[in-house]
Amino acid sequence: VSVLLLSGLSAASPVSLDISPNLQQFFTGDSSVSLRCAGDGQTADGWTVKRTRGGATEDCGETGSDPSCVLDLSVPLGGVFWCETSSGQRSDNVSITVLDKGLILEIPALPVKAGCDVTLRCRLRSGDITAAFFFIDKRRLGSGPELVLRQVRQSDEGSYWCSTDRFGKSPHSFLSVK
Predict the structure, then answer these.
(1) If both were cysteines, with which of 15, 35, 53, 151 could 79 make a disulfide (CB 3.0 to 4.6 Å apart)?
(2) CB of 17 within 8 A of CB of 82?
(3) Nearest to 78 by CA among 129, 124, 120, 27
(4) According to the UniProt entry, where is the signal peptide (predicted)?
């Protein structure tokens, strides 16, 4: 299962999808993930968290007017999530994957501000951080228990993943820089 963050807000969208914790990959049994539609740091009325699973689109919240959603991480799942109004105005898309085994890459789900540092870690099902090789696309960046990307810029955007000899590799995740 692959994870991808489709970057960028529509210029017309004043609302974005807020994710807590701000990660793209999770294991089953991790704490829940909260998603909400927000504008200027406030919950956005009139917006609904939507998701696509297996080609079907559905509301993520309990009702069609709920601007928030809590994902149950008790089972493996995946999907693309976004915020939408009844008139069809949409926010950015974020893909989230929940795995029941293997290795995950801890990487921000939301776009990162240019000039900030970003720390990537490879985590095992046990919760332990493990030493790994880190990659962007097909290029190896380094190895160790974490990789710090200093003062990220637009050229740091790409598909990241980590790999170990013993535990295999994580799904790919797209880091977006704004």
Answers:
(1) 53
(2) yes
(3) 27
(4) none
